[in-house]
Design goal:
With 271 residues, this protein is an alpha/beta fold. Helix content is 37%, strand content 24%. The protein has helices at 14-25, 47-50, 64-69, 80-93, 106-115, 129-144, 168-181, 185-188, 240-253, 263-267, and strands spanning 4-9, 29-35, 60-61, 73-76, 96-99, 120-123, 151-158, 189-190, 205-211, 217-225, 228-236, 259-261. Strand 2 (29-35), helix 2 (47-50) and strand 3 (60-61) form a beta-alpha-beta unit.
């Protein structure tokens, strides 16, 4: 099979540059196009030069429709509004759309799911192998350790520039814990505590959010019982792990039927 032509949206950002370098290093893929917002000073520059590779013959453009029409897939770590728009374009072009964007609302999720009727969409709050394995372990631990005896808390820390909280990864882990407990996360999540909160409700899944410095992403799931604690942790040291996962997801999804997939599907880790 020929190399998979991939579009990078948000190409001049930190993640976009990492995606360009990762694709360029993968023998099964090539950078087919690079997209930036209209008015960006990077429009017209060679995407490889922006990413520190040197020229690769792919100028950055602000025309996603044309780029998508000539590609096999798109890698998207942008904003919820942009990802919804790109999902529509991917559906029109019938190509693979890998979404690593976090902070999507319920309406955003609905619109992305609707686009997946005509596009192959792989969406995850985290694209790394380690985090998705961690989610499986969290689900198993939550199922094995009863809610009456073990409380679940999720602690995450990211760099000072991250704009959504809790992180998409923290929510992914919270959903895994909720599946293990056979409950709905929305009915049991506690995202803030301040003042006189009273005792902790049984079955609650708590979230603590830390922001600062240049932290790529640290996540811990704590199952706290009487006299003992189980802590499951993942530390991301390089955002290249997310880029590698995204490229792997695109290659896996090539040729699949239209639908909405997750990294668990890509990695064969079950539902």
């Amino acid at each position: 099979m020929s190399e998979m032509g991939l579009v990078v949206v948000g190409a001049a950002g930190r993640m976009g540059q990492t995606l360009i370098r990762t694709i360029h290093a993968n023998p099964g893929a090539r950078v087919a196009a690079a997209i930036e917002r209209a008015g960006s000073p990077q429009i017209g520059r060679d995407a490889g030069e922006v990413a520190g590779l040197g020229p690769i013959g792919v100028p950055i453009t602000d025309d996603p429709l044309r780029a998508f029409a000539a590609a096999d897939g798109v890698l998207d770590f942008t904003t919820p509004a942009a990802s919804v728009e790109f999902a529509g374009y991917a559906a029109q072009a019938h190509i693979v759309h890998v979404i690593g964007t976090t902070g999507c609302s319920a309406e955003d999720e609905r619109r992305i799911a609707a686009a997946a009727r005509h596009a192959i969409i792989v969406k995850s709050g985290n694209m790394s192998l380690g985090v998705n394995l961690l989610a499986v372990l969290v689900e198993q631990a939550a199922r094995a350790l009863p809610a009456a005896d073990f409380d679940i808390e999720i602690v995450e820390m990211h760099h000072r520039h991250k704009v959504d909280a809790p992180s998409g990864t923290a929510l992914l882990l919270g959903e895994a814990a909720a599946r293990g407990r056979a409950i709905a996360l929305g009915d049991h999540a506690v995202r803030s505590r301040d003042g006189h909160t009273g005792p902790r409700p049984e079955g609650a899944i708590g979230f603590a959010t830390l922001r600062g410095g240049s932290v790529v992403g640290d996540h811990s799931v704590i199952l706290a019982g009487a006299g003992e604690r189980v802590t499951l942790t993942h530390q991301a040291e390089d955002r290249a792990i997310f880029a590698r996962g995204a490229v792997a997801a695109a290659l896996w999804a090539r040729g699949k039927k239209s639908g909405l997939y997750s990294m668990r599907d890509v990695l064969g880790l079950g539902t």
